[in-house]
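Tokenise the fold.
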Amino acid sequence: MEQLGYTPNAMASALAGGRSRIIAIVFPSQPRTIVGSDLEYVLAATEAARARGFHVVLWTTGQDDMEELRQLARAGLIQGFLLMQVTLTDKRVDFLKQAGIPVGLIGRTSEPGQIPYVDADFDQIARLAVEHLASLGHRTIGLLNAPYEEGVRGIGAAVRFADAVQRSCTELGVECAIVASEHTVGAGRAALRELLDAAPTMTAVIGYNWKPDGVL
């Protein structure tokens, strides 16, 4: 094997044994793009999978592109799925559960049940940020949030963070204005102008995501 330079064929192994040892990280890339914090999750998941003898592929899809996910699952090459940009009611989760395909979440639905997931403690994050700004004397705070839809279809992380910031501001008697923004410089500037129009007395801003070149 060493003299011939033989390496196992992943597809042949999958057909023979039913285990490809390939995990797909599924990221809906529309209407937004992948940013630095997303790549940190992807790289960390890749390292963890590699340490356990698995390979990882990053599969980008359109928004609500269920048919593409169905085709990928039915092809039989993927042994498990890791979903990103999870919405509060995510159809992808229900489909993979019913298909009996292992699935994990970065983020979570409103009721994840027994599905394994990792998620930030947005209540604590919001509380710490608002308490810090309030202690500095700020009485009107703006939140520059990630793009999100209110209600059950929204990206869970953005919805929960917006709700948590609003709740913390109310509890501490601080005014709050929330604007969602795409991850581009132009969108960030437009969002800041919208925040200033909505809350002229705003003296501090909480940003959902940080970019090295800034969005404002």
About this structure: The two ends are 57 Å apart (CA to CA). Residues 29 and 60 are 6 Å apart (CA to CA).
